[in-house]
Design brief:
Elements: E1 15-19, H1 24-35, E2 39-44, E3 60-63, H2 69-75, E4 81-84, H3 92-97, H4 99-116, E5 125-128, H5 139-143, H6 150-169, E6 173-178, E7 180-182, H7 194-204, E8 208-212, E9 218-223, H8 224-236, E10 241-245, E11 250-252, H9 253-264, E12 269-273, H10 300-312
Parallel strand pairs: 1-2, 1-4, 2-3, 4-5, 5-6, 6-10, 7-9, 8-12
Antiparallel strand pairs: 9-11
Helix pairs in contact: 2-4, 4-6, 7-9, 9-10
Length: about 325
């Protein structure tokens, strides 16, 4: 009988691989693992340590290409646990325009990592997917839609690869599907995620902030610290399979734009452009692990303030 993850008492001394460890979510995860006493290895393609520069000496860096199975074989040698976060990701417009390229890059990384893990079938894996993969999803039908999001479809296909490998090899698999994460260290450019992109656009505008849609569209967000805490809670509870992570904090695009405007440049006027319709995205009621139902989530406006203050260095 397999040991439940909940039987693990401590991360102290545990050797952990975090792909995508220099990224937004990954860097927060790496810091938490270091704080828990884990020995962390992070793949890197160039000497760009980003937010982890101050922790550089505490991390085992290994340079290479995650699409290369030989490199991944070296990468997993001696590790006790894998967190796979690395991925090709921009914004929805890019994911749709380059849908095949984005999908292919993400699938290639998963395939290479699976090949690297072939000789280590007992290493537990946590794969970071997205809540944009709905509870019931037909990948073939989605690939034939007028607009295909290569990132979402790629995540769904990677999930299938991980599940199939876990079935054959018997390793413990946790797939997390978080809603839109935001917070300090996100990519603050106009091509970034919704929140940092709107902050940058508001800062750079003279007097009018143009926002796509009519403002009534709803979006769900999750503060980065809550996401990391939720992942560790799931691991402590021995959760496996697909687990959604959401605070159920839903805001309209109008509320979002106004909140950001009030923080960044209060005298800017907001103009909605309904001719450039946003995907309405009816927010589903996502199933939550019992342990997550007890969590205290960061209120949206509080998380937004923390994000803004970190961005401006306040």
């Amino acid at each position: 009988m397999r040991k439940s993850r909940s039987m693990r008492q401590s991360w102290k001394g545990r050797r952990v691989l975090v792909t995508g460890g220099t990224g937004f979510i990954g860097s927060h995860l790496v810091e938490r693992l270091l704080a828990e006493g884990a020995e962390v290895r992070v793949p890197i393609r160039a000497e760009n340590y980003r937010a982890l520069s101050t922790r550089r000496a505490e991390i085992d860096w290994l340079e290479g290409d995650l699409r290369d199975p030989a490199y991944c074989t070296e990468l997993v040698e001696g590790v006790d646990e894998v967190f796979h976060l690395a991925g090709c990701r921009r914004n929805t417009a890019y994911h749709q325009k380059r849908c095949s390229d984005v999908l292919t890059e993400n699938v290639r990384m998963t395939l290479a990592l699976l090949e690297g893990l072939k000789e280590h079938p007992s290493i537990p894996v946590t794969f970071f997917s997205t809540a944009n993969v709905p509870p019931s999803m037909d990948s073939v039908a989605l690939s034939q839609e007028p607009k295909v999001d290569g990132y979402v479809l790629g995540k769904a296909l990677c999930e299938t690869l991980w599940f199939t490998a876990a079935r054959q090899r018997g390793f413990r698999l946790l797939i997390v599907r978080p809603v839109g994460a935001y917070g300090p260290r996100d990519t603050f450019t106009e091509e970034g995620n919704v929140i940092p992109s709107l902050m940058v656009k508001t800062r750079d505008t003279e007097d009018i902030l143009d926002v796509w849609g009519d403002g009534s569209e709803e979006r769900a967000f999750l503060y980065i610290a809550d996401l990391i805490e939720a992942v560790f809670t799931l691991l402590k509870e021995g959760a496996h399979g697909i687990q959604y992570i959401t605070s159920k904090d839903v805001v309209t695009v109008k509320e979002l734009a106004e909140s950001i405007r009030d923080l960044v440049k209060a005298d800017v006027r907001i103009r909605f452009d309904a001719s450039k319709a946003l995907i309405r995205r009816t927010i589903p009621t996502l199933p939550l692990h019992p342990a997550l139902r007890k969590m205290q989530w960061t209120p949206f406006h509080e998380g937004l303030q923390k994000t803004f203050h970190a961005w401006k260095g306040l």
